[in-house]
């Protein structure tokens, strides 16, 4: 049985977290993500989970890292300024390979910016916010039901690859209320399980891997005692200062994701079968594009929407294929132009890639997009 | 148990020798910690040690428990999440004066406020040792450091009073000279249900002693002997002496205060409808 | 046919709740709906708006751009939120607060004693949002009467069901 609800995107993230088995949330209040914390404060204890409001954004990601080491599925949520603060330990989670899910409901920045206005200005920060070479996964839902589905997927990916997964919402999606159909209970939702060691505790090497390149991760207290560090380490988990150790660690952190792009990268195509032109857009910005595409087609312009659902790793293969198919690509995002640079890099001049960045506190309307389509695709 | 036996039992094979300089007090503090754990009869699986960044924080890598060498200042938040998610674990925090009182200062007072059952062992060597001798919030006023070449004009934290005011329910201080007392206080701190902090004054001959003309490691131990005064005796000192000496021993304890993870278990029962 | 409504007034008049209830009523009717609102300083006592879109088909863009109806429950809201209301649209105002209809608007205007009715019939101004919903539903038929009542009752505090249902009916009665 299922129930039909009118939920905000933020609330659907909460439902997805509960459904995926999240049992720990550490957070700090910040607009426009606060509903996630408020809802989980109410709901987690009912399923035996724990909620803690920490003293700051850094502490909240620290707490979820600690809880993840205890074997829990965890979440923290924030928005731009808080996401900036979390970068320190986001890098730690990448380096120590600790599964965590971070919801970042983007708002206008930099700095305090426009706290209640939508933006997609954290695209590059989600990729390169913390220092050093690192790789992670970022997903961008485009509807309230997708907030639910992608949160569940975020846990699946985070646990499978032992990597932080960022749920990159924007204020449009986070705050709008939309119809969602949810199962009455979440027993049927597959619960991702972390890989566990099969050897004896005394033979356990915390970061030894098989072909998956993902090490097993026993919870603290299980009898497998191991060491977690942000220093470069070898397969034993202990710090190692050699050039070889750094190269090996860096390569593995890259390859464990980039060997599996087909599993990780998801892109939606809308009206693309016969499209001569494409708009690339995601999240809240894509909502107007669906309508604009239909309006343009009614006027005979063969345009479609390509919507990356996985923002990072970049949908390189899909964008290359797109460049071979259409005459012109326009990237529409709620920022001055960030994702467009990646599209341009991959398309490498094969077809024109133009940017339609909107950064005026409001998503572009379907009418505005239609005008832009007519102006751009001539 | 002899120190050799303790090393065999609680230190990870192949991880020693440690990185600490000759004469550094941190080995003594770490030794006291494992003695305290041994004294309490805890198994290695039920103990977690979370450290930050700095000389002291390297201790976690040497110890054969569930260990985390976290980020600078962040040991307490990581330990808080770990403890709340796995309340049965005994969670110790290993930290230094810079790690705990500067970059991690906010986390320290909030963990004390929550009265979460963590045992913080603060290795106080009065200096940032790993980066080569910069002043910390616990470097004494007028002491020299590479970033205070004319002597620091910043007043230092009395960390014991700070965490006490923040709500800690067990606060103690000792020195590496008073090693037996250190072991006992750490054991008591672990046994205490609630937030406990044990500050251990530890010598850094390389980065602090040398800049402040305190002599060699043995001289610095003697300084600890002469300046650390048990609480009862300290109270009787003249005001002048109180300025240069410091009290050691159990400084403050509240028994029976609600501990955070216990309170959370009660909250869960209430949220589920009181069953 | 997509219906776009904007419920505007002052913070504290319960217009966001009214928007949520209206959208939930549409779901009960088996339709699709999206509700959004303005946040921020505006939502702290200044002017406030909730927007609702209802349709049989998928609604993509979640913001109202071509409202069919604007409810204005304050003079400031009537000034700020009526610009994009076409002359085919309807402006509903609360006659207690809105004394001046924007001159630019040439369409149909209904000046209803919404808050006045709440005060005189139910003793409290706080029922004004529910009365407004009753009036809008009666006026537009955008959702069924059964669904609006069901949606209202599932959102209001326990023990206030009878008075809230009465509020819906009082609102309906304002439409002659």
Give structural notes:
The complex is a heterotrimer of chains A (378), B (275) and C (176). Chain A is an alpha/beta fold. Chain A is built from 13 helices and 16 strands. In chain A, the strands form 3 sheets. In chain A, strands 2, 3, 4, 5, 6, 7, 8 and 14 form an 8-stranded mixed β-sheet that branches. Chain B has one domain: Rossmann fold (3-Layer(aba) Sandwich). Chain B has helices at 3-10, 26-40, 59-62, 75-85, 97-103, 105-114, 159-166, 179-191, 205-209, 217-227, 231-235, 239-244, 260-271; strands at residues 47-51, 66-69, 90-96, 118-124, 170-175, 196-201, 228-230, 246-253. In chain B, strands 2-1-3-4-6-5-8-7 form an 8-stranded mixed β-sheet, with helices on both faces. Chain C has one domain (3-173): Pyruvate-ferredoxin oxidoreductase, PFOR, domain III (Pyruvate-ferredoxin Oxidoreductase, domain 3), CATH 3.40.920.10. Chain C is built from 6 helices and 6 strands, in the order βαβββαββαααα. Chain C has a 6-stranded mixed β-sheet with strand order 2-3-1-4-5-6. In chain C, helix 3 (114-122) crosses helix 6 (161-173), helix 4 packs across helix 6 and helix 5 runs antiparallel to helix 6 (161-173). The interface between A and B is large, with 45 and 40 residues. Strand 10 (227-229) of chain A pairs parallel with strand 2 of chain B, so a sheet runs across the interface.
Shape of chain C: globular
Quaternary state of the chains: heterotrimer
DSSP, total strands of chain C? 6
Radius of gyration of chain C: 15 Å
Overall pLDDT level of chain A: 97
The largest sheet of chain C, given as strand count, sense and whether it forms a barrel, is:
6 strands, mixed
Number of strands of chain A: 16
The CATH topology of the largest domain in chain A comes to Rossmann fold
Summarize the biggest pleated sheet of chain A.
8 strands, mixed
Shape summary of chain A = globular
Tell me the β content of chain A.
Answer: 15-25%
Radius of gyration of CA atoms of chain A, rounded to a whole number: 21 Å
Instruction: Give the helices and strands of chain C as they follow along the chain.
Output: EHEEEHEEHHHH
What's the average pLDDT of chain C? 94
| Count of domain modules of chain A | 2
Largest interface: A-B, 45 and 40 residues
